[in-house]
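Document type: protein sequence-to-structure record

Subject area: structural biology

Format: plain text, a pair of labelled lines:
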Amino acid sequence: MKIKNAIILAAGRGSRMKELTNDIPKCMLKIKNQTIIQRTIEVLKYRNINNIIVITGYKSDILKKHLEEIDKNIKILCNPIWNVSNSITSMTLASNFLKDTIVIDSDIYINNCKCIKASVQCSGYSAVKDNRPNEWQLLTDKYNNIVATTKEGSYKSGLPIIDISYWLEKDAALITNKLKIISQRIDANEANRFWDEIPLFDLLYEMKLKRYDINEDDAMEFDTPEEFEKVRKIVCSAD
């Protein structure tokens, strides 16, 4: 099934980036004179995924202006409670766009365009082929179907998740219905959940999810200035 839409989650503060995000959202940091989110949008369009939705929050006005300069057709939704909630509230806003969609966190630098799939046969998550400890890990069967998830990085044969996921109609409907139920009774505990907990824990056994393995340098997430500098060096050293 062709992936037609993209949801980019860009509401968070990125507080571990310290002074680097005092004035701009994390996704507006630059590598090779291009912001992270500009690179993401460029790659999505290269893969013919042109219907793009961005969920903003922290420094929303600054990010909105930047996105409009990139492409005025990008749909922008603002999460008004970004500072007291986690990604589950952002996905609630975007749930109507989830069918045939890639969902990606805005703090991922896509180094290899081909790691973004233009079509998939099953919904699923990307995972990185390395051995980083203390990460969410996905365990699969011999057919690469996801059979379990851990938050502790304790599976010997599991691979760490990176927040690039693909959603086809049936699974998107299950997630959307769950999000609607949660939004009607959301409390502090629910608001602080990651949205990925819904498919990977709440609904895992109602879905058939694949793990799509990518190389470590294909797509790189960063949470600290040190990790950002590591990503920058990898990207720039390829020239």
